[in-house]
Amino acid sequence: MKKLVLVLGLILTCSTIIAQTRVNYSSTTNAYGSIGTVDANLNNSDGVEGSPLLFNDWNNSATIYLDNDKQLDIQNINFNIQNSTFASKMSKDSIFTFYNVNKVVMNNRTFIQINNKFYENLATINDGYLLKSYSLKVVPEKHKITNTVIGPGKYEIENDYFLINNGKLSGIKLRKKDILQHVNTKKDQVSKYVKDHKLSYSKERDIVKIFEHFEN
User: How far is CA 9 from CA 12, 39, 96, 113, in A?
Assistant: First the structure.
């Protein structure tokens, strides 16, 4: 597998870039083809408080696995929850958004693409995965007394959990009923394991421990 260490500062000199159009790399990187777009508008203009990005800053390291089995190493990257894309900040007012990506390993966390949406892979379970999705909702600012909307509000991140086996994606809640239903033939063992280790069916990290212990 060929590997390219991509330094964002070189994009402007090694590429022909037109805002909002595809980017084709120079002869030193053209084997990677057209892999993203430049967005000249990085600032939030809708007045909503907060950010659609998953991480607080851009100081994140990642390896991006492309659809053509090549990969890129990036030192300046974030995940845009709103449109489920990974992007790298090029300057104060512009970002480079990657596409044709099937997997990203970022800060030792793995994100995989399924049906044009990225999910975080929390645990590998036999032939499947325990996945976490991210979505945004806007909570409007309301008057404390009248409860009427008085402002655009703020972003809040919502999470859902899924299991995928044999290509089939199904939702799962972090609750005892759903977990025990999935481990059908091991209910007694799981219940004992949870009790002995003082785990919770509602905590993500504990559910990961349960699946990794019993499914693998």
Answer: 7, 15, 11, 27
